[in-house]
């Protein structure tokens, strides 16, 4: 059990998100239990509006859950208890976010974009530059470091964005439809970069996609419908049973077991 | 440093908009800085004018005090022989020349009289009374070509009571005992007669030699006015005192011959041996010659002297008031340009933040704190302010002298040039104001930026 927990990167217990109030309330995410281990490549699938992106924003600490618990990192920090003005540190240190629209800062070059998240963590500019260069090499775009986003193709921009997501060596990488704006050939190369992060560099990736061709690269595939976890392929049934037991703990107001 | 570098890059991203705001901002700073320079210059100018006027006013007071024991006797009519702001003792344009030689002799023989100085005054040319309301104050002006003023040249009297003669000779010499067809003319008459010292002028067919030109210290005082003709006429908007130098002084006998008065004179200065005898003399003359107007100068002093001083202090106060209103104007312009600067940067930054919501959300999503985001946008505002400030000061330095001399026209009012330049103080102030405007203007937009939710990074566009 302890060993298992040390490898747990995400543990969500009865995670819920409700938008609006009263009659107009919409349950975007409803009582989702999920545990993701180090080295997992999880594809979250589902039709649009199913709540898969909302789940990602909760796990990525971009938004706060209405109910439930969320433990992040191998230390199992309960992020639902981290005050709002401290949450940026979780995002900066533990999470790398990859967007469908790449979201690079247009005024900065490729390498400057990769350096950006390190400003708060690495003091030496030289060190930041060196690390950013390494990461650009890792995503095979080192030759484009001086280019502005507008001078890069979609695939190239997404590679830069992946390098940026890796900047602070996060234990969790979240990707929201990262191939949504790309043609199938480029999509495949991008998904292969993510896959390699998992297989060769022992990273953890949660990928939200509605494209099965992308989801098939993952070793776990989760489907969400109407905010609820529907099926899991490649998951472990026993795991879910264990989570159900913890769910009972939360219901009774007891602290879930941490590492 | 990184944040500043990024702020620069972001500013350069929207060159057109930044340039537009920068130019308007620069104009604000330029107006501000050159106003400071102008205020500075006008302070110098006004102070110089004030000093000049104060010394002239002091001179008048001295002259007046000098004649404490003198009595003015004139032949009926309005005897405005003495009056500050009027055309001196020649103000009586309608006096008749009815004081005979016998009367003069009789008065000279009275008890306590040390001497008499008869004089003969006649105004030549149209004599129109102009009444106008100038700057909320009634102005009276006599319009005439010139005044013939025959004066007593008894050297002992003229030496003791210099008010008999024009006292401020600006060119040539004063009249003296023994002069015949010699005249001293006012500086305002040099162009009328087209004559200078040593030239001949002709009056009623008689030829005279100009031996001197006099100029009273007070010619024209303009306060707060920007233009005007020094020879007369209320120019500009300020209060105006006009004392025209349009007298033709000549020996009394020459004037009597010229005007054919058969030895009569129009007025008489009677000098008492002692100021305590003045009242007695006035009463004696008045009872002997009830038709004559008799005034002790000390009584006039009491009557008018106060108003002279009042007048002087009014002018000094109003000049100082103008000075402080110029300073206030400068302050107002400064405040207005600062407000415009703040609003301009506010508008720009507010718009920028709204436009870059997704980018801000992304910064938050990848781990930027609220403070870091706020700092970034504050820097952008401050840098724009600084750029505008630097350009504005450069503009102001180039334009200040031209602008200010146009505004003040110092050489015309003061007769000396006043240098107008941007001071180190206004450079520092200009930059400080520009930076403060940048900080103040971007404060709220930057705060708004810092509150943007990281969820905005997922916004589909």
Characterize the structure shown.
The complex is a heterodimer of chains A (259) and B (461). Chain A is α/β, with parallel strands linked by helices. In chain A, the strands form two sheets. Chain A has a six-stranded mixed beta sheet with strand order 6-7-8-3-9-10, with helices on both faces. The N and C termini of chain A lie close together (9 Å). The relative contact order of chain A is 0.20. Chain B is α+β, with helices and mostly antiparallel strands and 461 residues long. Chain B has two domains: 197 residues, no CATH class; 158 residues, no CATH class. In chain B, 52% of the residues lie in helices and 17% in strands. In chain B, the strands form three sheets. In chain B, strands 1, 2, 5, 6, 7, 8, 9, 12, 13 and 14 form a ten-stranded mixed beta sheet that branches. A two-stranded antiparallel sheet of chain B has the order 3-4. Chain B is rod-shaped, with a radius of gyration of 35 Å. Classes of the chains: A alpha/beta (259), B alpha+beta (461).
Throw out a few tags for this protein.
heterodimer; A: 259 residues; alpha/beta; globular; B: 461 residues; alpha+beta; 2 domains; two-stranded antiparallel ribbon; 52% helix
Instruction: Tally the helices of chain A.
Output: 9
Ranges of chain A with pLDDT <50 over ≥5 residues?
none
Number of strands of chain B: 14
Number of domains of chain B: 2
The stretches of 5 or more residues of chain B where confidence is low (pLDDT under 50) are: 78-95, 219-241
Biggest β-sheet of chain A: count, sense, barrel? Answer: 6 strands, mixed
User: How large a portion of the residues of chain A is in β-strands, by DSSP E?
Assistant: 15-25%
| Number of DSSP-assigned strands of chain A | 10
> Strand content of the residues of chain B, in percent?
15-25%
């Amino acid at each position: 059990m302890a060993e298992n927990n040390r490898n747990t990167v995400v543990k969500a217990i009865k995670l819920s998100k409700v938008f609006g109030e009263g009659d107009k309330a919409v349950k975007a995410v409803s009582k989702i239990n999920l545990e993701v281990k180090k080295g997992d490549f999880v594809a979250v699938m589902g039709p649009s509006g199913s709540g898969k992106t909302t789940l990602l924003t909760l796990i990525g600490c971009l938004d706060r859950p209405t109910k439930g618990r969320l433990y992040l990192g191998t230390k199992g920090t309960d992020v639902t208890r981290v005050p709002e003005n401290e949450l940026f540190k979780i995002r900066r240190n533990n999470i790398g976010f990859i967007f469908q629209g790449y979201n690079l800062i247009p005024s900065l070059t490729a390498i400057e974009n990769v350096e950006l998240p390190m400003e708060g963590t690495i003091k030496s500019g030289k060190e930041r530059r060196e690390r950013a260069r390494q990461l650009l090499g890792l995503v095979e775009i080192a030759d484009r470091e001086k280019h502005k986003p507008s001078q890069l193709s979609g695939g190239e921009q997404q590679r830069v964005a992946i390098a940026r997501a890796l900047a602070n060596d996060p234990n969790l990488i979240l990707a929201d439809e990262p191939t949504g704006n790309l043609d199938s050939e480029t999509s495949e190369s991008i998904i292969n970069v993510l896959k390699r992060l998992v297989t060769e560099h022992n990273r953890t990736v949660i990928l939200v996609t509605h494209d099965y061709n992308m989801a098939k690269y993952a070793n776990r595939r989760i489907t969400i419908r109407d905010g609820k976890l529907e099926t899991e392929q490649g998951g472990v049934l026993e795991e879910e049973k264990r989570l159900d037991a913890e769910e009972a703990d939360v219901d009774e107001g007891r602290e879930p077991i941490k590492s | 440093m990184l944040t500043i570098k990024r702020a620069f890059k972001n500013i350069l991203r929207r060159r057109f908009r930044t340039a537009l705001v920068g130019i308007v901002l620069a104009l604000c700073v330029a107006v501000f800085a050159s106003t400071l320079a102008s205020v500075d210059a006008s302070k110098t100018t006004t102070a110089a004018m004030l000093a000049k006027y104060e010394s002239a006013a002091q001179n008048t007071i001295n002259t007046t005090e000098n004649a404490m024991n003198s009595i003015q006797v004139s032949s009926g009519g309005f005897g405005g022989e003495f009056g500050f702001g009027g055309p001196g003792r020649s103000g009586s344009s309608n006096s008749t020349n009815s004081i005979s030689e016998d009367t003069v002799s009789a008065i000279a023989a009275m008890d306590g009289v040390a001497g008499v100085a008869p004089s003969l005054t006649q105004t030549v040319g149209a004599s129109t009374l102009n009444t106008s309301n100038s700057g909320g104050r009634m102005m009276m002006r006599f319009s005439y070509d010139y005044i013939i003023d025959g004066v007593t040249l008894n050297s002992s009297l003229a030496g003791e009571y210099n008010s008999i003669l024009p006292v401020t000779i600006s060119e040539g010499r004063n009249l003296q005992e023994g002069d015949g067809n010699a005249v001293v003319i006012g500086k305002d008459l040099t162009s009328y007669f087209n004559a200078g010292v040593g030239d001949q002028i002709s009056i009623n067919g008689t030829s005279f030699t100009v031996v001197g030109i006099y100029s009273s210290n007070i010619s024209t005082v303009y306060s707060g006015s920007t233009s005007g003709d020094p020879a007369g006429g209320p120019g500009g908007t300020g209060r105006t005192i006009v004392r025209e130098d349009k007298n033709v002084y000549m020996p009394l006998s020459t004037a009597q011959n010229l005007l054919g008065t058969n030895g009569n004179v129009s007025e008489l200065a009677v000098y008492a041996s002692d100021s305590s005898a003045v009242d007695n003399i006035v009463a004696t003359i008045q009872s002997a010659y009830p038709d004559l107007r008799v005034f002790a100068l000390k009584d006039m002093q009491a009557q008018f002297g106060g108003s002279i001083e009042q007048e002087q202090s009014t002018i000094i106060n109003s000049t100082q008031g103008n000075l402080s209103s110029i300073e206030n104007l400068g302050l107002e312009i400064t405040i207005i340009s600062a407000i415009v600067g703040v609003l301009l940067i506010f508008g720009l930054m507010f718009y920028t933040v709204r436009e870059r919501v997704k980018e801000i959300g992304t910064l938050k999503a990848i781990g930027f704190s609220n403070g870091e985001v706020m700092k970034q946008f504050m820097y952008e505002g401050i840098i724009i302010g600084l750029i505008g400030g630097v350009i504005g000061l450069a503009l102001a330095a180039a334009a200040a002298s031209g602008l200010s001399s146009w505004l003040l026209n110092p050489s015309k009012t003061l007769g000396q040039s006043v240098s107008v330049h941007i001071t180190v103080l206004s450079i520092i102030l200009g930059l400080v104001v520009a930076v403060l405007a940048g900080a103040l203007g971007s404060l709220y937009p930057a705060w708004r930026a810092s509150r943007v939710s990281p969820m905005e990074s997922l916004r589909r566009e």
